Request: fold
Amino acid sequence: MEHPKRLLALIGPPGVYLTLFFLLPLGIMAVFSFRAGTIGEARNVFTLEHYRQFIANTAYHRLLWRSSLIAFGIASISTLLAYPLAYFLAFQAGERKLTLMTLIIIPTWTSYLLRVFAWKLILGTNGLLNTFLLSLGIIDRASPILLYSRNAVMVTLVYVWVPFVALPIFAALERIDRSLLEAAADLGCKPWQSFLRVTLPLSAPGIIAGFFFCLIPTLGEYVTPLLVGGGQGAMYGNLIQDQFVRALNWSMGSVMSLAMLLAVIVLLALFSRMGSFSKLLEL
Amino acid sequence: MSEPAVELRDVTKVFASTRGDVTEEVYAVQDMNLEIAQGEFFTLLGPSGCGKTTTLRLIAGFERPTRGEIFIQGRPMSKVPPNLRPVNTVFQNYALFPHLNVARNVGFGLEVRRVSRSERERRVHEALEMVQLAEMSNRKPSQLSGGQQQRVALARALVNQPAVLLLDEPLGALDLKLRKAMQIELKQLQAQVGITFIYVTHDQEEALTMSDRIAVMNKGRVLQVGDPVTLYERPASHFVADFIGESNFFRGVVEAVSGQVVELRVGGARVQATASDSPPSPGQEALFAIRPEKMRLAVSEEDLGLHGTIQEVIYIGTDTRYIVSVEAQPPVAVRVQNGCGIAPQEYRRGEAVQLFWLPEDAHLLAD
Ligand SMILES: Nc1ncnc2c1ncn2[C@@H]1O[C@H](COP(=O)(O)OP(=O)(O)OP(=O)(O)O)[C@@H](O)[C@H]1O
Ligand SMILES: [Mg+2]
Reply:
């Protein structure tokens, strides 16, 4: 039989990739979460101490909860902004849509750091926004709160994510057979009714994909909060980074990472429980 | 009511298609005039690209006429959007909503029009019964066969009780056997519900089977409108005679005219044909057509008509088909039914025969 061979050839490379770069690190992390210490003798002692500490420390939970909310907010806002963009491109832009899509994607070819720094220049005390508001007389003193705040983190991350969220939505909208919209009109729908009854449900897989595409990495985000968030804008990812880089407490860092993984899995499970997720993806 | 269900008055639709710097104008529909009566099964018949779909889309409101006006039940439609027109469409690709089950697909129009839930359920059930799909109401369109999808599309349109139903090659995707069965079903259904059907097809046999009247179209124009018998028995142009059924075409010079009967010289023979409107005058060249089954073959000493030689004998069970070569004419097809007392292969290849026909079966054509 040729089939098992072909199957192996198909799932082989991604399988190897997943094992090397996902399962293996995950396993290492799991092992570290039980080690008493990061270096020396303590490495060989296994304990549940860090789990106990994590469970006892409500500050960690609060930050994980708050970061989840922020990530949820960023994913929601990004999706809300990306949808009209993708809709315009798919339905209104006509022949120019590929050009326009490329224009939207081009900034994402530059370094992620560069784009975050750009926002630093815009939001900073002597930045574009302050200068602009000052020159208009809307504010009379340069406001430092634009930068180093949770809002700065949200604005920056939304900016970074909108094009990526727009992509799967655009793809889903492009796949919608235009004759379905004519059928809806034929059956009495005004344009907005066609949108609600046909376009929106049929683009739901794209919306969900885009939303999670943004939500999950944002939950573990630490670079942007580091650069524009300041103390108040810190997210759970920064805490993990601190454990690994500053405190050199890899065990605690691992426990915290696993907790976040659990949070993501719970979120996904909740969504698929809500039914529509898996059903819509079957389309 | 004597008022037509649908009327097209001088309707023209021009598409501008731009390729690079060149803008080309495509006349998809040109100067079309049609009156379709209430309750009629009316068919638009023509080859691919002749403007059938465009005509339906103009009536449904998805396209606006470049010139001319469309009336539905006497009301001008130029300012009425598709959702407010009293028509429903069965789309060529069915266009069923993939995210809704069969019952909700069928109930879509009623839901939009806010028909109460109980009435909606009753009418959806009735419509599904009518197309024999009541047990499938919970399936998704993707779980249905092509024929079943086609019925759902039909039920989805009919359930709204439109004044006019537009059908764009609804049987195009079905295999021949199912197609034949659905043709009869559709025709019966139309008689039963009494809704005006405007039906598009490029299949002449389908058109003849189902229609009360047929408009034959070519290159955006209507060439002839008539009932199946008229179109088949008295085609007015070369295109119609060729497109509907099979025809033999002859070119000759008019020798004499008496009433509608015209005497022509074809090669060395004198033959007769009938003109449907004003006959040509002597000396003119004229084209006429005869169906293969309306021709007779004979071996005779007398001069009966055209002389020819049997080139091919094709036995097809109920009939025998002879291909006869005639001097200075394309080969002529003759169909002889294998009836009582007729030998199935009366004539042999290479045999010299004469071809003749009744004057009223030879139609002079406009072009
Ligand atoms: N949106 C459009 N833009 C430009 N040209 C068009 C458009 N729609 C149709 N046409 C042209 O108009 C002509 C008639 O098209 P139409 O779709 O009405 O043909 P049809 O008779 O339905 O053919 P078929 O049997 O293949 O479905 C064709 O030449 C087609 O290329
Ligand atoms: Mg068509």
